[in-house]
């Protein structure tokens, strides 16, 4: 039971993390670059 639950959690977090990473690279990177340019 514990192994099964851990596997689900690991798979879920891996998927979630990769989604967040894609989102960050796709959307946040341009925004961060823009805000840094504005601050400069």
Automatic annotation (TrEMBL):
This is Uncharacterized protein. It comes from Panacibacter ginsenosidivorans.
């Amino acid at each position: 039971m514990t192994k099964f639950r851990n596997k689900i959690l690991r798979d879920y977090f891996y998927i979630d993390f990769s989604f967040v990473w894609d989102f960050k690279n796709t959307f946040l990177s341009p925004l961060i670059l823009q805000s840094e340019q504005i601050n400069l």
